[in-house]
Amino acid sequence: MNLHGIVAVSGKPGLWKALAQNKTGFILESLDDNKTKLVANLSTAKLAALDEITIFGEDEDIKLKDIFERMNSAKSIPDPKADGNTLRVFFREVAPDHDEEKVYASDMKKVVSWYNLLKDLPLFTEEPKSAEASAEEPVSETVAETSAEETKPKARKAPAKTAKKK
């Protein structure tokens, strides 16, 4: 599961994919059917990357990615609008060691709704690129084929001096 580049924006519903970065923030595209574009200003908007989100656990925090993987193998997923007790029972199944005092019903609703948005996307089944795999990729052929002669700066001709007429 590759959640790299997927963010949640405070004050905006749904999930967004980071397309590019500019001086003041990020250019985002919604993951819903509308494909709405948004420029998120870093001074006013708060972005949360899904690959970095964790849920409070009793011993240690649980990565959202791990919860999504367990949800993927679960028999049935409750509706995000279900009551808190139904969601709590479901969360005991997919995240048995979550801290029940710190994880609220609103958090569980958000996780279930995010899962429903992501489960049908191709990136959900895609493996993330690791740092080792990207280091092993071959250098682009066009870069590798440039010779030292091509990289030397070209000599400039000195401007011709004009003789002054008296």
UniProtKB/TrEMBL annotation:
<feature type="domain" description="DUF6852">
    <location>
        <begin position="53"/>
        <end position="118"/>
    </location>
</feature>
<dbReference type="Pfam" id="PF18347">
    <property type="entry name" value="DUF5606"/>
</dbReference>
<dbReference type="InterPro" id="IPR049280">
    <property type="entry name" value="DUF6852"/>
</dbReference>
<dbReference type="InterPro" id="IPR049281">
    <property type="entry name" value="BVU_3817-like_C_sf"/>
</dbReference>
<dbReference type="Pfam" id="PF21186">
    <property type="entry name" value="DUF6852"/>
</dbReference>
<feature type="compositionally biased region" description="Basic residues">
    <location>
        <begin position="154"/>
        <end position="166"/>
    </location>
</feature>
<feature type="domain" description="DUF5606">
    <location>
        <begin position="3"/>
        <end position="50"/>
    </location>
</feature>
<dbReference type="InterPro" id="IPR049282">
    <property type="entry name" value="BVU_3817_N_sf"/>
</dbReference>
<protein>
    <submittedName>
        <fullName>Uncharacterized protein</fullName>
    </submittedName>
</protein>
<feature type="region of interest" description="Disordered">
    <location>
        <begin position="127"/>
        <end position="166"/>
    </location>
</feature>
<dbReference type="InterPro" id="IPR041218">
    <property type="entry name" value="DUF5606"/>
</dbReference>
